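Lab notes, practical 5.
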Amino acid sequence: MKEREPKQSNENDKEKIEELVSEIEALKKEVEEFENNYKRALADYQNLQKRVQEEKSEWVRSGNKELILRILPVLDTLMLAQQHIEDQGLQVSVQQFLDILKAEGVTKIETVGHEFDPHLMECVTTEEGEKNKVLEEIRAGFMQYERVLRPAQVTVGKGKENNVFENGKNH
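Output from the prediction step:
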């Protein structure tokens, strides 16, 4: 009988050890699952924070856009006056105005001498000149953060007109 007890005790110990090992494995899996859930929840929260921040920024930009659109006609008037009057104070005022707009992410669309771009410009008139080149800017256009705030109004070259009586010959 004495010999059987150690075998039985050994078997009981093995069973308990196996139970404990399987319980440890189950607990490890559970801990891993909790860690994964925690990491996912943390990532979701961080993504939510980023999205909320981006939305806030977009709201501010949108609010600024409306205000900027309302004051651009004042800048138009100053720029028009600058074309007709040589005044250092007026030039400084226009430049300060443009600097403030630049600080708000607003930049003037460059037009004269550039290829006509219908995404950035409105063709108001066409004249004889290099085809599809902007010849004159009638009203300045502006972009805010890579989006068109207001398209520029321009005069575009339509190429050279063929004169019916070129060199005295009728074509």
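Observations recorded by the TA: The domain at 107-161 is CATH 2.30.22.10 (Nucleotide Exchange Factor Grpe; Chain A, domain 2). The radius of gyration is 37 Å.
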